[in-house]
Amino acid sequence: MCEPLQAEDFTVQPVDDVSPPKWHLGHSTWFFENFLLVPHLPGYQCYDERLNWFFNSYYESQGPRILRSDRGNMTRPALEQILEYRQYVDRAMEALLDRDVPAITQLTELGLHHEQQHQELLLSDIKYILGSNPLHPSYREDAKTSSPTIPHRYISVEGGRYSIGHEGEDFCWDNELSRHDVLVQDFGIGSRLVTNGEYLDFMKDNGYGRFELWQMEGIAWARNLEVKAPLYWYREGDEWMQYTLDRGLTRIDPSLPVTHVSWYEADAYARWADARLATEFEWEIACAKLQPEVPASGNWVERADYHPTAAASSEDNQLMGHCWEWTNSAYLPYPRYPRPEGALGEYNGKFMINQMVLRGGSCATPRSHIRPTYRNFFQPDKRWQFTGIRLAKDLL
């Protein structure tokens, strides 16, 4: 993922939400060293204990750390040293895994999923670094052709009592537990994601200026936007342009899913469309009915499109891959939530406040990382991830 970058790209941090690529390389390495090698490999010597301060992200139990907003000031350690650090830890991990201890295997699996999260964050951060540069350099060149827009419709889902959350012995995050029942009313779920063309209609109808469409916090946020449009959209004369990783700055394709929108924008658009966002429970119920298995051919990071693609047919519901879908659910613990003890209890539990849930994965998500029960979460103003919109509505 870092191979197409130039040396200067590895350190820059345009905004607090974005971490420099070399920080991601160091942090994901530190995770394995700190939580696996130090406590479980006899005689292991840390590569350099000072790196703990640089690469600890938010673990209060693991000591002091660099401020998140200061990660871009980290000119040292040099990239070459961080790459050497990764090789050092890789060799030690091979020695540790030779021990074949179940507890180590479970922690390693967690570490791999953690690294997959950082692969996705890395790609999103690279896009912000390159996309906010006035030169709009592409990450890699890959010309695409436009596709026709498949008509939107609502798929009816019968209400009732449903079980929500992860079950089984395979890996999941703690925030997907414990499985519990919810009661939902009949509802309709959008047959595909909202497109750029549909969102342009919202913008042409003064969607960003109509206070009645927005939550109070949202309209205040929208009024402060320099460009009243999704992130990476730019106006050139009478035409809207969009920055993408594979093409640089290009004309908006109306058939593609709109992406890089905040929850505020998603919620306002849904209200404008005489609809609403689905709750995370409605989304999971609809996914179980329409897309119970993770599609092998979906738009995952392995496909290297690095951007949402248009629905291929009326049967392509785009429920998994393409964009993380904002829901109308606050990020809260499930009943009987088993918050882990110790440092790993800081992973999800302490963030269950002032954030909204997203579902479905994106074009930057590894396929083996996602599940229908996976709960992503961000504050409602965030939009540097590949976030999109699916409509829902009540059925009377």
List keywords for this structure.
396 residues; alpha+beta; paralog of FGE (formylglycine-generating enzyme); 2 domains; 4-stranded antiparallel β-sheet; 4-stranded mixed β-sheet; 8 helices; 13 strands; 14% strand
Summary of the model, kept short:
With 396 residues, the chain is an alpha+beta fold. It has helices at residues 21-40, 51-55, 79-97, 102-131, 196-204, 216-223, 263-272, 280-290, and strands at residues 154-157, 160-164, 180-184, 187-190, 233-236, 239-244, 248-251, 276-277, 324-330, 356-359, 376-378, 387-388, 391-394.
The tally of strands reads: 13
Class computed from helices, strands and strand pairing:
alpha+beta
Q: Which range best describes the helical content: under 10%, 10-25%, 25-40%, 40-55%, 55-70% or over 70%?
A: 25-40%
Q: What series of H and E elements makes up the topology?
A: HHHHEEEEHHEEEHEHEEEEE
Ranges where pLDDT stays below 50 over 5 or more residues in a row are none
Q: Biggest β-sheet: count, sense, barrel?
A: 4 strands, antiparallel
Biggest sheet, spatial arrangement of strands = 1-4-13-8
| The CATH superfamily title of the largest domain | paralog of FGE (formylglycine-generating enzyme)
Q: What radius of gyration results from the CA coordinates?
A: 21 Å
Q: What is the CATH level 1 assignment of the largest domain? A: Alpha Beta
The count of helical stretches stands at 8
Oligomer state equals single chain
Write down the domain tally: 2
What is the first-to-last residue Cα distance?
48 Å
- On the 0-100 scale, what is the average pLDDT? 94
Could you tell me the strand content as a percent range? 5-15%
Which outline best applies? globular
CATH architecture of the largest domain: Alpha-Beta Complex
CATH topology of the largest domain: paralog of FGE (formylglycine-generating enzyme)
